[in-house]
Amino acid sequence: MRNHATYPHFQCYFAELRDSSPDLAAPEPRIVGFAYGFRGAPGQWWHDVVVRGLADRIGQEAAHAWMGHAFELAEIHVHPDYQSKGIGRQMIRTLCAGRRERTAILSTHDQPTAARHLYAGMGFMDLLTRFVFPGGHEEYAIAGRRLPLT
């Protein structure tokens, strides 16, 4: 995250819950999730790898249409005890609100996970599946959608 925070138009949000116990004078916030993203650009490792992967599978023009002016959702995490409560959805909406990029792009494990279900429910479509990043072995899906979110 330290490196990503130097990227253009970086944004980060934390999801906090406050303990509402009447015994507490000043409830302490509890961080239950965080998400961040930035504008992707040539020279960034993930961006360059995904552009090449897209160009190989769907062509250079389509790859540029998706990645040429994209908001890259780099990390979206919600503590397991707080998943399926709308927190991830709200963090994505907050991150994408008012963005000037044409698209939002992310990668996720290429398995039927709760995260994949969330992204599909928000209109993200698979651009690449069974994608393996250089040096890795796990399969990922690269998903994208046009902005703004509706």
TrEMBL record:
The record ties this protein, via InterPro entries, to: Acyl_CoA_acyltransferase (IPR016181), GNAT_dom (IPR000182)
Q: What Gene3D superfamilies is this protein classified in?
A: 3.40.630.30
Question: N-acetyltransferase domain spans which residues?
Answer: 1-145
Domain of life where this protein originates: Bacteria
The organism encoding this protein is Nonomuraea salmonea
What is the official name of this protein in its record?
GNAT family N-acetyltransferase
